[in-house]
Amino acid sequence: MASKNGQAKSRVTPLTYKNAGVDVAANTRWVGAIESAMRSTYGPRVFKNRHGGFSGLFRLDYDEQLFRRNYRKPVLVGCTDGVGTKILLAIEMKRLSTIGIDLVAMNVNDLITCGAEPLFFLDYLAVHKLDPAHLQDVIEGVADGCRQAGCALLGGETAEMPDLYKRGDFDLAGFAVGVVEYRQAIDSTRVSPGDVIIGLPSSGVHSNGYTLVRKLIRRKRCKLDQVHDELGESLGDALLRPTRIYVNAVQAVQNAYAVKRVVTGMAHITGGGLCENIARAIPSDCDAVLRKSSWKAPPIFDFLRRLGVKQNEMFKVFNMGIGFIFTVRPFFATGVMEALRRAGEQPVKIGRVRRGRGQVIIR
């Protein structure tokens, strides 16, 4: 068929959203597939008949006697975080079952440093193409982390963006909301000289410093599936071990000292390592002096150091075996450690606070 000017009309095939790279039907199937994982995290304060809605509902107070929990002056606490390039190692090893635990841990461990109780969690999953069978392990891991933290996986978002992510890639972000009583909120202004610093062990590298880790692996051509005697497992297993969640430890101390405010500060040892994160938990007129010999770091850290990182850089990047710290009034340090032991922890006195200039000194 010719047009008036004699040129043939070109036929344009109508474009659909699926042709463009986004499968709405797959998203619908995905929502159904993750329902059981989400519901496994629900407690009595969640409105349970809201799955598939545009938002989740959560009661701050709950009056039924068995689960009674009411706040007098509640302060809401929120934070957000991801797991960084640790995802790339998980993708390379085709093991996605623990990366969701990392996501929850990175958020709730920040949340509890001010004494907050985690209430609920939201996740954001961005993918090249939505493959429910492939990604189910990720959400199951998120649900596992929420159960460990005692919070509800209240909702989330999955975005299919083939123009932004290459095939096989995905990214994760999380958002946690908690609550703390106004008078029990913890901040660094209460830390004072003489306070004891108590550390809780990490499970390994956790979820920080993986850009450096991956650079070291490429430079030395390390194989992730190779077992090393000094690690007692493969390098990949050591690096993918999920971040520890410290919610139960903090709640154990709070329950043991419900009235007395014996904990003056807390820090999650995340990006920036021991040096930067402990510095964030002390006032500018104090120093934290740590004894390096007081704890034993997991062997993965010495392994990474020998791949080509200076010791002082290690302490600036990694947790070096301490994942969470408390600063505690000296008279109560023994009692706090006992409460932590009863909660299944292995606390270690790693240092003290002294007058100074806001520095962390490692001896």
Choose one word for the global shape. globular
Please identify which CATH superfamily of the largest domain we are dealing with. Answer: PurM-like C-terminal domain
Largest sheet: 6 strands, mixed
Question: What is the domain tally?
Answer: 2
- Mean pLDDT, all residues: 90
Q: What strand line-up does the widest sheet have?
A: 8-10-5-11-9-12
CATH class (first level) name of the largest domain: Alpha Beta
- Spatial extent as radius of gyration: 24 Å
Q: DSSP strand (E) fraction?
A: 15-25%
- Annotated CATH architecture of the largest domain: Alpha-Beta Complex
Percent helix, as a range, is 25-40%
Q: What's the number of extended β-strand segments?
A: 12
SSE run: HHHEHHEHEEEHEEHHEHEHHEHEE
Low-pLDDT ranges: none
Number of helices: 13
- The helix/strand class is alpha+beta
Distance between the termini: 86 Å
